[in-house]
Specification:
The chain is α+β, with helices and mostly antiparallel strands and 181 residues long. The protein has a single domain (12-170), classed as Peptide deformylase (Peptide Deformylase), CATH 3.90.45. Helices cover 19% and strands 29% of the residues. It has helices spanning 27-42, 136-149, 167-170, and strands spanning 47-49, 59-64, 78-90, 95-100, 108-115, 117-123, 129-135, 164-166. The structure holds nickel (II) ion. Nickel (II) ion binds at residues 102-104, 144, 148, 181. Residues 102-104, 144, 148, 181 line the site of nickel (II) ion.
Length: 181
Amino acid sequence: MAVREILKMGDPRLLRVAQPVTAFDTDALHRLVADMLDTMRAANGAGLAAPQIGVDLQVVIFGNEANSNPRYPGRPAVPRTVLCNPVITPLGAQEEDGWEGCLSVPGMRGVVPRWTRIRYTGVDPFGEPIDRTVEGWHARVVQHEVDHLLGKLYPMRVRDFAQFGFTEVLFPELDPNADDD
Ligand code: NI
């Protein structure tokens, strides 16, 4: 297990459409997931996608405890999840705006519209199916991470650039060295 370097926006490897995982419960996949968990914890992130450490595979991890982090005031818990080959289906047409950050876009935050309610499916690293219907913050985190597998970073989703800027300016009460997602 190891903490890996997180690629930053501008690196073309963040713009690829990631390849599906075809072999489950392998040493290589378990090592990748372990490295992603180490890297996410070291960066105090709420999520991480394999392309962010330069691995061209459809693997994302996410999860946070309720109010466990001062950067997520009032945010509910999301179960720690390792998700391969995810597919998102929006449920209804409702969108909501919310602040996001990204470990690949350090020091910045922006307001991003996301589907309020989604169903997501995929498999865990052992090949066991995952099928959840979620809303709000949980739905936002999943959409942000799955976007990484499509070569999309959240600034590409920002509609109002008056609500995009530096964390230390927008949220001076928060730790300026911390970023999320
Ligand atoms: Ni991100």
